Amino acid sequence: MALTGGKNQGDVSAMLAQAGRIIKDGGLVAFPTETVYGLGGDALNMESSRKIYEAKGRPSDNPLIVHIADMEHFEKIVSKVPEKARKLAEAFWPGPLTMIMEKAPIVPYRTTGGLDTVAVRMPGHPIALAFIKEAGGYVAAPSANLSGKPSPTTAKYVIQDMDGRIDMILDADSGETIGIESTIVDLTGETPMILRPGFITREMISAVVGKTDIDAAVFDDASKQPPKAPGMKYRHYAPQGELVIVEGEPGKVASYINAQTAAHARNGERTGVIGTSEMIEKYRADSIKDAGSRSDIVSAGSRIYTFLREFDDEQIDFIYSESFESTGVGQAIMNRLLKAAGHRCVQV
Ligand code: AMP
Ligand code: MG
Asked: What distance in Å separates the CA atoms of residue 268 and residue 271, rounded to the nearest whole number?
């Protein structure tokens, strides 16, 4: 695998050209986006999609998102672009919004996990857009992690999971990633339906296209509700340690967590805590992660996956996290935390 990190413009152009050739030849390239790193292959080549599933160890009924860089390409892979999709594209693309629509025949079922619909996104990262153009315009890409692990927010974690499994990594850590995956909205029905919350919130979507629903499976335990985004049914984003979310008045949350970490310490188990800046001094654990101020929820979101990966690096056995408000972007953070925690949540 070639690891690239060219600094001057000539290097970057050569890297992008090489990456584009690899995709056209049916290979796989990991690339940065403004959300998390993607694991890309030619979306119109079923053999490339097969390789993506294999590299990730991902179940083949879990469809891939097709990334485009040009509005003309949008029309080619969707049988009919609904008016609401056009408006949302105008408002939020390039950006962290994925839309589900009826697929055109050129999109192979391997890419859509056997579905007649296709998920499409135009990412906002300049390297991603340039790479997609070099690659021919249609790059199928899930997050560049092994199935079930937290999505990678830096090239380091892509290498950890994908070394030896893919042909190239475009390394462009900027430190400014959103850090959680795109919002997914289904536009096949009359009312748009959010299947996965993200940085583009329900409020933002409904301001453009009116009434918008959220799939009930987003917050319920997946075992109780069949989710409409097949990927949401799998245990996801999980660290090796056992994660528990603790909800309640901040002082009580800290007392509860400290009692738990003390008990684990007596058993020789290693503990971690994710807390907000306002409370962080109160915690006692082997590894304490500051998610930033409660008033800056976006910054908390951008750090969650990195924390979960770091806890793995630090061999943490038990992790306790504060909970976040389930509105706006907080909804996306809570959705990912609940999944990572396998819905283990205590009220104190
Ligand atoms: P990832 O690529 O890891 O961000 O996961 C992509 C997510 O998009 C998965 O949860 C999929 O289930 C979802 N997805 C992709 N295509 C479709 C589709 N056609 N219908 C519903 N969900 C989809
Ligand atoms: Mg993923």
From this structure: 10
